[in-house]
UniProtKB/TrEMBL annotation:
InterPro entries: PUA-like_sf (IPR015947), PUA_sf (IPR036974), RlmI-like_PUA (IPR041532), SAM-dep_methyl-trfase (IPR019614), SAM-dependent_MTases_sf (IPR029063). This is SAM-dependent methyltransferase. Residues 172-392 form the S-adenosylmethionine-dependent methyltransferase domain. The lineage of its organism: Bacteria, Pseudomonadati, Pseudomonadota, Gammaproteobacteria, Chromatiales. Pfam families: Methyltrans_SAM, PUA_3.
Length: 398
């Protein structure tokens, strides 16, 4: 059956024709196509006000982003064949990039599959569905993944709060195989035990892998501080590069226990220590104790999750970075990240610069990193360029 049309208001197609795929509810001509006439996840044909065909997509009348374009080829509507082709295309890129099958296999809009995230841990796939449109074709998506990848296990990690915005339930479900909540991942020749069923996100942060590899060129010195360390990816990398003392800070005790285990696995346990606590409080305590470090790495969760939180979030980034900068030896390395897509690179750098000024220090920006190529950026969708990692040298005030 032919999908129903979804008609835009006058002059609302320009951004879509430029390549963006999100359609907001206030861009719809609700006189011509009332949103209440659509079911969540229903496939639609998107048309301009003068009936110019724009693309195949799906709609959710209850969401601010009420529709997403999936295909711009009129002869290729939403179908099992389309899912297979898109997943095959995504796999082709990752196999060009990585020797080992540990990576983000599907990155939503950037891979032409809005509302779908898939992380690959060799024979295990962790799948996250974030929109009603993808939820509606869940069975087709899972079948396509089985056909293309041939995994032994698939876990649905639908325990993200983003699903609430689409009116979807949260939960974790094993849909193929009997995976254990523990597996070994290899990054830069280091082994990490991760938890794909219960860990943060899907158990690992693949997006920072390329940035972690850049530590080697700068040298980390003897004393390193890793803040918001999760299970130790940054900290263990620093220890492997020769740091004698690495302190990993996180608020979650299970994460710290996993750091100790991962350090022992890589014979780095004599160099790695952990401390549990709120990042801001721990940094203040270290400052009060007169502690200093050669490298400080700050990789916090997103402080800006909604545009209205920009001011408060920018202040939080500034406070965290000031505390980190104050703990650095002159000439020390600051590696600081923001995964808030509402804060662009220039705004983040400005917040860090303001932090340095308040700390009475000067900065030299050495390099700017983003998410790795398994998280490709869609040139027309700035929201896909969410990760900023700055490598800075911190000096006494000029």
């Amino acid at each position: 059956m032919k999908p129903q049309p979804l008609i835009l208001r006058k002059d609302q197609e320009r951004r879509l024709l430029a390549g963006h795929c999100w359609i907001y509810s206030n861009e719809i001509d609700t006189q011509a196509t009332p949103l209440k006439g659509f079911a969540p996840g229903q496939p639609v044909e998107i048309l301009s006000d003068h009936e110019r065909w724009i693309g195949h997509g799906y709609v959710n009348p209850h969401s601010l982003i009420c529709a997403r374009i999936v295909s711009r080829d009129r002869s290729h509507p939403l179908s099992p064949a389309l899912w297979v082709q898109r997943i095959h295309d995504a796999l082709t890129l990752r196999e060009r990039l990585y020797k080992r099958p540990f990576y983000r296999l599907v990155f939503g809009e950037s891979d032409g599959l809005p509302g779908l995230i898939v992380d690959r841990y060799d024979d295990l796939l962790c799948v996250q569905i974030t929109t009603a449109g993808m939820e509606r074709v869940r069975g087709e998506i899972l079948a396509a993944l089985e056909q293309v990848i041939r995994p032994k296990a698939i876990v649905l990690r639908n325990d993200t709060s983003v699903r609430e915005l689409e009116g979807l339930e949260q939960g974790v479900e094993v849909v193929l195989g009997q995976p254990a909540d523990s597996l070994t991942l290899i990054e830069h020749e280091l082994e990490f035990e991760v938890s794909p069923l219960t860990g943060q996100k899907t158990g690992w942060f693949f997006d920072q892998a390329e940035n972690r590899s850049r530590l080697a060129r700068y040298g980390v010195g003897n004393r390193v501080l890793d803040v918001c360390s999760y299970i130790g990816a940054w900290g263990l990398r620093a220890a492997a590069l020769g740091a004698d003392e690495v302190l990993c800070v996180d608020s979650a005790q299970p994460a710290l226990e996993r750091i100790i285990a991962n350090a022992a696995r890589n014979r780095l346990d004599q160099r790695v220590q952990t401390k549990r606590g709120d990042a801001f409080e721990v940094l203040r305590d270290l400052r009060a104790q007169g502690k200093t470090f050669d490298t400080v790495m700050l990789d916090p969760p997103a402080f800006i999750k909604r545009r209205k939180d920009e001011k408060e979030g920018a202040q939080a980034y500034q406070r965290l970075n000031r505390l980190g900068i104050e703990l650095l030896e002159p000439g020390g390395l600051l590696v600081t990240s923001s995964c808030s897509f509402h804060m662009n690179r220039d705004a983040f750098l400005r917040a860090v610069q303001q932090a340095a000024r308040r700390a009475g220090r000067s900065l030299q920006l050495l390099e700017t990193g983003q998410q790795g190529p398994d998280h490709p950026v869609h040139p027309a969708i700035p929201e896909t360029a969410y990760l900023k990692t700055l490598f800075l040298r911190v000096l006494p005030d000029f």
